Amino acid sequence: MNAVEQATRGGRDWTQALAGSGSAIHLGGDSVSVQALLARGRAGWQAHAAVRFPALRGIGDFDMLALLLAAIVDRRPALLCAADATPPAACDGAIGAALEARAADAADERAPASGESERGPSGLAVQSSGTLGTPKTIWHDPRDVLATAALVMQRLGLGADDRVLITVPLHHMYGLGAALIPALLAGAQVHLLPKANLLSFNGALRAATPTWVYSTPHLLRTLVQRKRDPLSPSCSLVLAGDGIPEPLRAQAQQVFARVFDLYGSSELGVIAISGANQPQALDPLDGVRAFPAEAGAGQARLVVRHPHAATHIAHAGAAVALSQAWDTGDIAIFRDQGRFAIQGRADLSLNRAGKLLVLADLERAIMAWPGVELAVAIALDEDTAAGKAIAVVIQPSSPALSLDTLKQHAASTLPVFARPDRYALAAELPRLGSGKPDRNTITKDYRHG
Fold first, then answer.
1. Distance (Å, rounded) from C-alpha 150 to C-alpha 162?
2. Which has the higher per-residue pLDDT, 297 or 2?
3. Residue 83: what are its φ and ψ, rounded to 5°?
4. Is 273 in a helix, a strand, or coil?
5. Which residue from 79, 72, 65, 78 is spatially nearest to 31, judged by alpha carbons?
6. Which site among 194, 248, 320, 408 is 20 to 30 Å from 206 CA-CA?
7. How many beta carbons lie within 10 A of that of residue 278, not counting itself?
8. How many other C-beta atoms lie within 10 A of the C-beta of residue 381?
């Protein structure tokens, strides 16, 4: 019986299954086994032994990946963040990017003396994407990250014969806990594309001939605009992200045999996965309970109890324990057998003419219009007869798109209460490292006209 079978039957710790993985990881034309990476990572940590809680800045090469895997298997505290991120004060060093420690000298990198106070909880920490504000620092027990990854592996049916192409960053829970670790637990061949663009994405699809692809709506949109022919009948797509319009989803289903929607968060990891080509029926992972904040409501804020959630969270202050019932801040429609569909953020919704308008719904509707590549809706600091005024900032896919055309589309496709009061066209909208729109910057730039 191998380590994966033992962990599956025991239902406990998947650490040895990861350490004994038969996967090889392919990156930049080279490939390295998990065992070789673990050996490299352990040697690397010896060189950074003085740093107690370092930030791993950008997991984009084998050296950084080796440190990450060794940290998970050996349960060494570390924070994962983007290469250009500013680590929080809890970190006493930084590895990666320029490979420089934050401290000016080795004395500042020392381990705390006996009795010295801890700077934060122990474990593997990630930073939230900061879509709506300052990023939060979130601590996970590596054993919980592995346990959730095992549930993903089992739900998707990943196996040793699979070839998994990962086009998303590994410092987020999507890339790490939903893509990389499940593939490694399965013993699959893993192909990493840390800086994906259309050219490299197309090249990886040809070279790796993947059976599974992990992507985001932003990268997928660039692909399907130019590729309409189906890939291999065995190639499936896992998709996570905000505001996936129906036309994009339909195009994805022309290219990929099966499309699975995945829903999760930095605090909980993966929460639910849809059936193939069934985006409106997210099915919670085994042991995960999803329910409305108002008992019996058909549409309400989504609350989740997750057996492998984060342990602590810090946001502009000390770390606090995560509550057992986590309010995700998302509005969901609840369906039979515990399934649900996400409508959008509760703090990105408002009352208009007595009706609830979820801005994500409005954005999806507008992104279905011809000539619209990306749309971000924001509430303005002014009132109308229907309620708060709404502006929509649009990145067009066609130079022919005009404000008059947008108003015509709104009049013919949107109910009166949902029609924007103002439009703005932008050649390129700012994005976060995750590929999501940078709503903070967009709101600041366009809220006042």
1. 15
2. 297
3. -60, -30
4. strand
5. 65
6. 248
7. 15
8. 9
Type of residue at 347: D
Strands 299-305 and 326-334: antiparallel
Contact 80, 22 (CB under 8 A): no
Question: Hey, which residues does 391 pair with through a beta bridge?
Answer: 378, 422
Give 377-402 pLDDT, tens digit per residue. Answer: 998 888 888 888 999 999 998 899 99
User: Quick count: other Cβ atoms within 10 Å of Cβ 195?
Assistant: 9
Topology given in CATH for the domain delimited by 353-446: GMP Synthetase; Chain A, domain 3 (3.30.300)
DSSP-H helix ranges across 179-237? 181-186, 198-208, 217-224
Residue 347: pLDDT band by 50, 70, 90 thresholds? confident
Segment (H or E) for 394: strand 387-396
**Closest by CA position to 391, among listed 369, 372, 363:** 363
What is the residue-wise DSSP string for 283-332? EEPTT-EEEESSTT-SEEEEEEE-TT--SEEESSS--EEPPSSEEEEEEE
Distances (CA, A) of 24 to 34, 38, 161, 186, 306: 6, 12, 12, 11, 31
Asked if 373 and 366 count as a contact pair (C-beta separation under 8 A), the reply is: no
Determine the distance from the C-alpha atom of residue 72 to the mean position of all C-alpha atoms in its chain, rounded to a whole number: 19
CA dist 288 and 304 (Å) reads 7
According to CATH, the superfamily of the domain at 142-309+325-346 is ANL, N-terminal domain (3.40.50.12780)
Q: How far apart are CA 309 and CA 329, in angstroms?
A: 16
pTM score, two decimals? 0.83
Q: Sorting pLDDT into bands at 50, 70 and 90, what band is 129?
A: low
Compute the radius of gyration of the chain from its Cα atoms: 22
Distance, in Å, from the CA atom of 100 to the CA atom of 425, rounded to the nearest integer, reads 41
Which residue type is seen at 360? A
Distances (CA, A) of 435 to 101, 219, 396, 400: 28, 8, 17, 25
Per-residue pLDDT tens for 15-68?
A: 999 999 999 999 999 999 999 999 999 999 999 999 999 999 999 999 999 999
Q: What share of the chain is helix, strand, coil (3-state, %, to 5)?
A: 30, 30, 40
Would you state the pLDDT for residue 106? 37
Q: Which two tokens stand for residue 306?
A: 């997750």
Could you tell me the residue ranges of all domains in the chain?
32-139, 142-309+325-346, 353-446
**For tokens 């505290």, what's the residue?**
77
Non-local (6+) Cβ contacts of 385 within 8 A are: 353
